[in-house]
Amino acid sequence: MSGVIPSVESAKRLAAFAAVDRHIRPEDKADNRNWFRHSLGSTVPYVVERILEQGPEVNTARVFIPTGTHAPPQGSMTCFQSKELVVTAGLKLGDVDQYPLIDVTIDGADEFIVVADYRKNSVVLGTSYKQGVPVEVAPFAYAKVLRNLQHLGSPTANLRMAIKKAGPVVSDNGNFVIDAPFPSDLLENPYQLFQQIKMLTGVVEVGLFCGISREFVQDLTLDPATRATPESTKGIPVFHAITVVGSRNKEKAIEFVTQHAPDGGWAQKNDFTSMKRTPDAVGSYKEVWEHPDVDIVYVGTVHTSHFEDALGALNAGKHVLCEKPLTLNAEEAKVLVGLAKEKNLLLVEGVWTRFFPLVQTFRKLAFEEKVIGDIKHVVSDFAIGRLDFISNESRLLSRNLAGGSLLDLGPYPLLWAFLALYENPTNEKTEPVLVSASMLKTKTGVDDFTSWTLDFPKLGARADLMCNLSVINPNEPTKIQGTKGEIIVAGPPSRPTALVVRTRDPGAREFEPDVVYDFPIYGVGLGWEADGVGRSLRDGDIECAIVPHETSILQMTIFDGIRQLGGYDYPEGLEKVKK
Ligand SMILES: NC(=O)C1=CN([C@@H]2O[C@H](COP(=O)(O)OP(=O)(O)OC[C@H]3O[C@@H](n4cnc5c(N)ncnc54)[C@H](OP(=O)(O)O)[C@@H]3O)[C@@H](O)[C@H]2O)C=CC1
Ligand SMILES: O=C1OC[C@@H](O)[C@H](O)[C@H]1O
Fold this sequence. Notes:
Layout (H helix, E strand, L loop, with lengths): L6 H17 L11 E3 L6 H9 L3 H4 L4 E3 L12 H10 L15 E3 L26 E5 L4 H11 L5 E2 L16 E5 L3 H4 L2 H9 L4 E4 L5 H9 L23 E3 L3 H11 L5 H4 L10 E3 L2 H5 L6 E4 L3 H13 L3 E5 L6 H14 L3 E4 L6 H12 L6 E9 L21 H5 L1 H12 L10 E9 L5 E10 L4 E8 L9 E5 L2 E6 L7 E6 L11 E4 L8 H12 L10 H18 L13
Parallel strand pairs: 1-2, 1-3, 8-9, 10-11, 11-12, 13-16
Antiparallel strand pairs: 4-6, 4-7, 5-6, 13-17, 14-15, 15-16, 17-18, 18-19, 19-20
This protein binds NADPH dihydro-nicotinamide-adenine-dinucleotide phosphate (NDP) and the ligand O=C1OC[C@@H](O)[C@H](O)[C@H]1O.
The site of NADPH dihydro-nicotinamide-adenine-dinucleotide phosphate has 22 residues, from α8 and α12.
EC number: 1.1.1.179, 5.3.1.6
GO molecular function, one term: nucleotide binding
Catalytic activity: aldehydo-D-ribose 5-phosphate = D-ribulose 5-phosphate; D-xylose + NADP(+) = D-xylono-1,5-lactone + NADPH + H(+)
């Protein structure tokens, strides 16, 4: 078949030609323009062929910067081969240190070279830790990343240099480290900054801890008296100590302790305990479970890891506070609850909102004072508007991490239906019926928009619940409606800040003026959860009455039903126990 290009090759050639014609035009040849060929795939010879067709007078003002791996996937080129291609074609070769300003990056779609390893959660730096956000970069890209970090708002970002030898510090993975100090206004939204840095080509790791564990630890360092509630003043007060921090990567655990808990929790900082001040840092979760100074393990890992982490801790004889949702499905939740009971250990799902003083006031208004009459309808819509700046590999978008809005955000709209309807004394814990559910998926195949309806037959009441990752919904996302009016839960359903009671007398046309109950939040707001769980431990409970096991299992049963109706099956192997 000589002379006939196989169809795949012809497609590659066409694609390469189209890319050059659109993005590398003959007029783009000013002296200061450089070209960056990145991660050379098998399409690149065609790119070069098309560029050469533009003629030598156009190409003399261009610089070509090949990159690539030493052992690329089959069908791709090595860095050496790509250099050869440039030199043989008579084009001018350069490197990224010399020409950090890149105009065009060309990458074959079949190959993906570096990239943001989303595993790292991060640290808001700049207060006690002045060195800046540590960013691990692939050496070939450091000059470009440095410039991009400067553009992102860190003008003094610089390459970390070795102290006892010449040259840059080289990480265990053979990469360089840039220290990037950012101003406090940018660090106020660490998640966004983290994602922006992570998305820079060449960035391997970002030492900016912005996950929930950082926030939890931050609240454990605050004085519990600042967030005192009537129940926290009863009996022996509880204080918190952080005795060990675990990560799959020991260096990361050390960095976490250095940046966020150098003096442990409030009890250690204030000498309320004989525990040593600085928590140990260990390189596996198992070492946390087995640590002799640990009473309770806080599981703040990704959803796919909750079951095994909670199981491991319980099996090691430790009490567990596990982030929401407890597990991936109802069967796994039942196994954990069964094991905790068998071992006489406390197991609590970290539905932190339940511990807010606002929730107690809600119950008082709704059920004792019945300010809105009989509750008939709950509407709650949790939307976080993050889709645009999270990577496909993040825990929210990756199918392999059971991503999507339902597991991440769904517990909160459901919480308001549970509080107002399921736990309504008149309902006598009659389980709701899932009457409908649907999911609109992201390109990665996880759910973005998910909505579901629950009917509560005993109350003749309904809950219309929604969550999504795409948009934001700042106004009145949660409303509890009754026969005489409504209670608006202001603020995110996870972290509400006020209750607004809006009522109307029967027969009246006008509503009464709103009655607003404000609830200041101390720190992030996780301290109330820590205190509540601490009290359960103090009292020897194996279940925390504020987050009953039964609601954790019911939540997962409802989520299983929603996923079934929405066509969302987890990839094989994620669920460790299935029906
Ligand atoms: N209560 C609340 O308001 C909030 C609760 N959450 C909940 O907290 C939990 C963690 O969320 P968040 O902190 O945002 O999550 P992150 O994406 O930041 O991940 C947390 C940690 O999970 C660990 N991990 C374990 N296995 C994996 C894996 N296979 N891939 C990636 N990471 C892994 C990593 O720790 P390491 O590398 O150190 O081992 C990682 O740093 C979730 O359950 C979430 O629903 C989240 C935000 C708010
Ligand atoms: O629990 C949560 O509440 C707040 C959200 O922003 C976060 O994604 C979620 O995990």
